[in-house]
């Protein structure tokens, strides 16, 4: 049986019955057959990869896709739960599957599980067991039915969070009464870059060369301006199916780069939704044969980097008089600039240069409608006297648990000294 892996297109091969067995078709004859059929048969677009099998009777079938799409719901109450966790680098995602006896509605209904932490850089070989705690569930867009994706965090057998478990600390901050009462909202803009598989060069770029300068690609339309739209659209729909609060998507300034937005989300939910959306994106690019990178500056030179701008507001910011609350928050953020920068993503210094719509990594700044500042306030917020702020410093590879909880901690729980507050207010021209 001969097989073809056909990315992005579905080939319909119809051949006359022949006594020749599939095993007797030589590579040269097979190539000739494909060329002959491609001249006769139209190519139908498809968002999926399809494995086609040529049988000896000349018919084409897709047994694998039949099985992948098999709905087992009428035959069993059992479901498949895909347990997802963050690996040793703090940015890589890992997952494995297990059968659950019946559908569930809450992560507390799921059992804890374990994995080999020595294989993910999270435990020594002589004591490698790491325990997964289910924390959030989403519908599985790949398996469908009652199957689920499960966002987990990781602990030692003694119940201590391992170093890469940033969710645990975030949950503590978001459970603080001061934070709970302020109902913190987040809208996160996740930028990412698509790379060609073998050369690790952006999708749509000529290999070893560069496309035309930036300008026509941002929200662009056309084969010479938009590269990877099918991946972006497939991801959009898959996130909606999963129950992720995705609110939009667009092509970015650098060709081969895209963005999607998640939110508004409250508290710890923001991190859960971003991590699950990243997992889904990894799976889609895996199927498409394209490499996903969250590197904040994938191409050096006069090209935009990739960020994860985080929009943030509290109940007090959203109410009358909220602009004064926003300015007080900006003051606090200015005084903890270094703490935030150190937690906002690896390699961010290559992105935050003061160019390409970024502020310098070494200098804190804020402004109304200014995308070259550390913190941007929108025109509507200024006009209405209430609203939200946008932290433009986080890199595309930031941990959303860290960034969201740090924003809440700095603006709601941390109090500067009066002297530091006065100096910062004067420096930033803030009257609070």
Q: Care to describe what's here?
A:
Residues 79-159 form the GS beta-grasp domain. Homooctamer. It is found in: Plastid, Chloroplast. With 432 residues, the protein is an alpha+beta fold. The protein has three domains: 2-68, no CATH class; 79-164, Ubiquitin-like (UB roll) (Roll); 177-428, Glutamine synthetase/guanido kinase, catalytic domain (Creatine Kinase, Chain A, domain 2, 2-Layer Sandwich), CATH 3.30.590.10. The protein is 28% helix and 23% strand. It has twelve helices and 18 strands. It has helices at 27-38, 63-68, 167-174, 177-182, 229-242, 269-288, 315-318, 322-335, 337-342, 379-384, 400-413, 418-428; strands at 2-6, 9-10, 44-45, 50-54, 60-61, 79-86, 93-100, 113-116, 129-139, 148-155, 185-196, 246-251, 257-266, 290-293, 310-313, 366-368, 375-377, 389-391. Strands 11, 12, 13, 14, 15, 16, 17 and 18 form an eight-stranded mixed beta sheet that branches. The protein is globular, with a radius of gyration of 25 Å. 38% of the residues are buried. Mean pLDDT is 88; it is low at 1-60.
